[in-house]
Amino acid sequence: MTRPVTDDRSEFLKGTLDMLILKIVALGPIHGYAISQRIQQISRDFFQVQQGSLYPALHRLENRGWLGAEWRATDTGREAKFYSLTKKGRKQLEAEMANWERISDAVALILRTAE
Amino acid sequence: MTRPVTDDRSEFLKGTLDMLILKIVALGPIHGYAISQRIQQISRDFFQVQQGSLYPALHRLENRGWLGAEWRATDTGREAKFYSLTKKGRKQLEAEMANWERISDAVALILRTAE
DNA sequence: ATTGACACCTAGGTGTTCTAGGCGTATATG
DNA sequence: CATATACGCCTAGAACACCTAGGTGTCAAT
After folding, report:
1. What is the crossing angle of helices B87-111 and A32-42, to 10°?
2. A residues 36..95 contacting B (CB < 8 A)
3. pTM for the predicted model, two decimal places
């Protein structure tokens, strides 16, 4: 049973996932599973990052040199892959945040155009 | 000559194009070429809608019943396809604007998280 | 005569996201 | 003890939007 085309209940992020991940990791080393929880929690359950989006994104960011990774144990004693922001990653985050600012300003300009 | 990967100068919109088009058309019947000019103009040259993005989007919106189309003459005497917003289109626009509001709020929540 | 703006269009490629699976461990619950 | 649930990682395939790069034709200006 396929959902109807008009059902757009999963209207999350679009190209902002990378930026959000970088921002969360910027708060301190953290593993993937926890990143998705933090994003969901801080956005008050608005963003729900699917694992099928999360892990490819993390690998993408790591490959681009924006994230570094290291296997460590969590507080509950399990092995997990902890990510941290590289210098390049911090620059990228700043660029993406500035860009987001400009995009949302431009969108606001258009949305508020009356007549 | 391929541009370097890190060159992200064309960091436009992402899934917002449909909404922006609907919003422009909501101001009154207008043809495709003029829509792209209006978007560029109102956004102060920030958004530059490529024709390869524009026309498929217009057909998409028309197929979904959000836009109606009619061939008419422009003020310069040329034939052009004028689009206007349908009732469904107006509802869709309202929904997308509300959604955009929630998305940008949620993004702002995360971006402003310190520590 | 040719260039550039106007005005429409499509095919093919790229990249991101979602769905839908799979693997393994630990902990709680029946 | 079984088994479900949370934790924590992963991938393949499909869908979809966007961009590049072409194409057509008209009209005005140089």
Report:
1. 120
2. 39, 42-44, 46-47, 64, 95
3. 0.90
In which band, very low, low, confident or very high, does the pLDDT at B12 lie, cut at 50, 70 and 90? low
pLDDT score for A73: 95
Strand D contact set, beta carbon < 7 A: A 5, 31-34, 51-52, 55-56, 58-59, 74, 76, 78, 80-81; B 10, 12-18, 49-53, 56-57, 60, 76-78
Domains and CATH numbers, chain B: 7-114 (1.10.10.10)
> First vs last Cα of chain B: how many Å apart?
43
B27–A106 C-beta distance less than 8 A? no
Task: Indicate the residue type of B35.
Answer: I
Q: Which pLDDT belongs to residue B10? A: 46
d(CA B113, CA B106): 11
Q: What is the pLDDT of residue B13?
A: 64
- State the residue for tokens 């400009």: A102
What is the side-by-side order of every strand in the sheet holding A30-31? A30-31, A79-85, A67-73
Contact in structure between B39 and B47 (CB atoms under 8 Å): yes
Residue of A nearest to B19 (CA): A111
CB-CB under 8 Å, A111 with B97: yes
